[in-house]
Write a structure and sequence with these properties.
Elements lengths: L5 H38 L12 E3 L5 E4 L16 H11 L11 H14 L9 H10 L6 H17 L2 H9 L11 H9 L8 H8 L5 H4 L5 H17 L5 H9 L18 H15 L12 E4 L3 H14 L7 E7 L6 E5 L24 H10 L7 E4 L3 E4 L4 E3 L11 E4 H7 L2 H11 L1 H10 L21 H12 L10 E5 L5 E4 L11 H11 L16 H4 L7 E6 L3 E8 L2 E8 L9 H4 L1 H13 L14 E6 L6 E2 L7 E6 L7 E2 L16 H8 L3 E2 L1
Parallel strand pairs: 1-3, 16-18
Antiparallel strand pairs: 1-2, 3-10, 4-5, 4-14, 6-9, 7-8, 7-19, 10-11, 12-13, 13-14, 15-17
Helix pairs in contact: 1-5, 2-8, 2-10, 4-5, 4-6, 8-10, 10-11, 13-22, 14-16, 14-17, 14-19, 16-17
């Protein structure tokens, strides 16, 4: 039998007593600390429930464009006027024990910690509604211990000084539901066109799922995920005994009809389409969700030129018949910096906030050709390069497929033409031949490097702009040609200040990367001036002939058209502008007047925008040589040459043959001459007359 020594027993008793007193001391200290925190929370009084000051956007002249509808402009509705279903759905999914805890759900915290530990990752959240409300009202969304401790103190202050009903009401009126809707009232109107008090169980359970991730669970953006989350919320409501299982089953089956905001609810800002883009860019620059901008009281200084913006809007209104249902998109940009000076995303923002400059993917048609001809010049073509333009069928894919393009109104030279003529006349046969001669990958590579993002199949029709693009992308690509090949991207925001006046972002002036060859970019620019030069006409008129008479300075440009789209994009040395017109849904542009809208808007705007400013010419860089040529045969213009035009070449590629009389141009066999590297390609290609 083992006998415990009395000394061991006394030692154990002392240890137990010590642990007891230590535990008692810890509990006493925790109680004192809790008492101090509660006393401090009470002494500091109730924290303000007002939403922080609105974020304000300024134009480039620092005039106020508008402010976000996040402060007093935010809809606020009392808890009694919110559908009980919306309240129950929110509580079931966000904080089922809301009325049982005092700001912190320790059981939920322990469960989330255990789940995270098992998964070895952060998979569950345990924030209560009070904690979320404190974070949205007073704090940033930074994941730091300082922020978490401050959040905890604000949570205590809210619980000590306000009733549960007041906190819940504030939460429901401030959370973000996506698409600019802050609070349950704004969400109800945005998604269902009704007040929050009229929400049904099906509608309320759908809305309650959005705040977890507005970009992921918005039914307007991802109907499938939104529906899955609605089902989850209905199950949670049944589990919380907020509704019966048969109610959940019925609500799940109800098809929901979504509507947009009413006209009187649209944001009242100058340049609303630009305003939206500036907010998106600000959120990206700060690395936060767009919703987080609402709580920061930011001052955002943008690139918008209010004068040019008004001129852009005025031109669109002036040119387009008010009774026409056609839409338009327009963007003006500084080609040296990428700063967007004006943006019109549609004819009426209140009726349709869809931005046709940054969101719409449309076939660019012949506006893709300057990128094609830039690639060709890099590959050895010159403005004097001649190829035959006549009806042609192109076989490709080892003869399995064929493509037969046509020129506008079926006008063909039925003989050789120069590149200078081809771009001015927008000859499609010349373009496709060029595309196939240099290799279909060249245009795709050039377009992607210039910022076009859609898939570009390497087929003959790519040369005629069949791969869709955004107007913003095309304007940016032309800006690269305009500035001599330097890399740029569209810029909407110059500087951001926080509510205390501290600069949290400022666009730095850095040396731009040389993206395109400077000489080839300049030669392409000079070729693009030809669309306004009637001297280049041979068998058809230059594409800019109708607007050329109203232009008073040097411009480079290219138009484009498909059955459903009309484009005009061009630039002076200091401003690049693109205009698109067309119908939102696949309706063809049939009226002759409507087909000319894009060119008319572009010409009127460029002249108005640059009125009174010094005339500027495109400045040739070193490494290019100018010469007078006969644009119909590409030869140097001699004394008896019937027509001549001053054209630039990359030095060393200018023609040496002389045009001295009105004789017929000699055929150029450029398209027949191939080096050994291209022989295998040309075996796959066959021209049919």
């Amino acid at each position: 039998m083992n006998v415990i020594h009395p000394a061991r027993i006394r030692q154990t008793i002392k240890l137990v007593r010590a642990l007891f007193f230590i535990s008692l001391l810890v509990l006493t200290l925790l109680s004192i600390a809790a008492g101090i925190i509660l006393l401090a929370a009470k002494l500091q009084g109730p924290p303000s429930l007002n939403v922080p000051q609105s974020t304000i956007l300024y134009a480039s002249d620092e005039s106020k464009m508008g402010e976000t509808h996040y402060g007093e402009k935010r809809y606020w509705t009392s808890l009694e006027k919110i559908s009980p279903y919306a309240v129950k759905a929110t509580l079931a999914i966000e904080d089922r024990h809301y009325f049982e805890h005092h700001g912190f759900d320790f059981k939920r915290i322990a469960g989330a910690a255990l789940a995270d530990l098992k998964a070895m990752a952060k998979i569950q959240g345990a924030s209560t509604i009070t904690q979320q409300y404190a974070r949205n009202l007073y704090l940033s969304h930074d994941k730091t211990w300082t922020r978490k401790l401050t959040e905890a103190f604000y949570t205590v202050r809210l619980e000590v000084n306000y009733s549960k009903e007041q906190i819940l009401e504030g939460y429901l009126n401030t959370i973000y539901y996506g698409h600019g809707a802050y609070g349950i009232e704004a969400a109800a109107k945005t998604y269902f066109g009704k007040s929050a008090e009229d929400l049904t169980l099906a509608e309320a359970s759908m809305l309650a799922g959005i705040p977890k991730g507005p970009s992921q669970y918005s039914p307007l953006l991802n109907a499938e995920k939104a529906k899955e989350r609605q089902k989850l919320i209905l199950k949670a409501m049944v589990h919380a005994k907020a509704i019966k299982p048969e109610q959940a089953a019925a609500a799940e089956k109800i098809p929901l009809a979504f509507t947009g905001p009413k006209e009187e609810e649209a944001a009242e800002t100058d340049a609303p389409y630009f305003y939206d883009e500036a907010l998106k860019e600000s959120a990206r620059l700060l690395g936060v969700e767009q919703a987080a901008l609402s709580t920061r009281g930011l001052k955002i200084y943008t690139t918008l030129d209010p004068v040019l913006q008004k001129k852009a809007e005025r031109q669109a209104e002036k040119v387009i018949d008010p009774d026409s249902g056609i839409q338009t998109g327009m963007m003006a940009m500084d080609p040296d910096t990428g700063e967007v000076k004006a943006l019109v995303g549609g004819r009426d923002y209140e009726k349709s906030p869809f931005n046709r400059v940054t969101q719409a993917l449309r076939q660019p048609g012949s506006t893709i050709k300057p990128l094609l001809y830039y690639a060709a010049i890099k590959d050895g073509f010159t403005p004097s390069t001649m190829m035959v333009s006549k009806p042609t069928v192109f076989e490709y894919d080892s003869g399995k497929s064929s493509y037969k393009p046509s020129n506008y109104n079926d006008y063909y030279a039925n003989g050789p033409i120069t590149m200078a003529q081809a771009i001015a006349l927008s000859d499609n046969i010349y373009a496709v031949k060029t595309h196939l001669f240099i290799g279909p990958d060249k245009l795709a590579h050039t377009a992607r490097s210039a910022g076009l993002t859609s898939k570009m199949p390497e087929i003959p029709s790519l040369a005629l702009g069949t791969a869709p693009a955004r107007l913003e992308e095309i304007v940016n690509a032309y800006g690269i040609l305009a500035n001599g090949g330097k890399q740029i991207r569209p810029v909407y925001v110059l500087k951001i200040e926080d509510s205390a006046g501290n600069i949290v972002y400022k666009k730095e002036k850095t040396k731009a990367k040389q993206l395109f060859d400077e000489q080839a970019a300049f030669v392409t620019t000079e070729l693009m001036t030809g669309m306004f030069d009637p001297k280049l006409n041979s068998y058809a008129s230059v594409t800019g002939g109708k607007i050329a008479k109203q232009l008073t300075r040097s411009y480079a440009g290219k138009s484009g058209s498909t059955e459903t789209d009309s484009w005009m994009v061009g630039y002076s040395p200091e401003l690049v502008t693109g205009v698109w017109t067309g119908y939102d849904r696949d309706k063809t542009i049939d009226q002759v007047e409507e087909k000319g809208y894009a060119k008319a808007i572009w010409a009127g705007f460029m002249e108005d925008a640059l009125k009174g400013k010094p005339l500027k010419e495109f400045k040739p860089p070193e490494g290019v040589t100018g010469a007078y040529i006969n644009p119909e045969n590409g030869k140097l213009a001699g004394p008896g040459c019937p027509v001549k035009r001053f054209v630039y070449f990359i030095s060393g590629t200018e023609p040496t043959d002389l045009c001295i009389g009105p004789a017929d141009p000699e055929p150029n066999d450029h398209e027949k001459k191939t080096d050994k590297k291209k022989e295998s390609f040309w075996k796959k290609l066959k021209f049919w007359e």
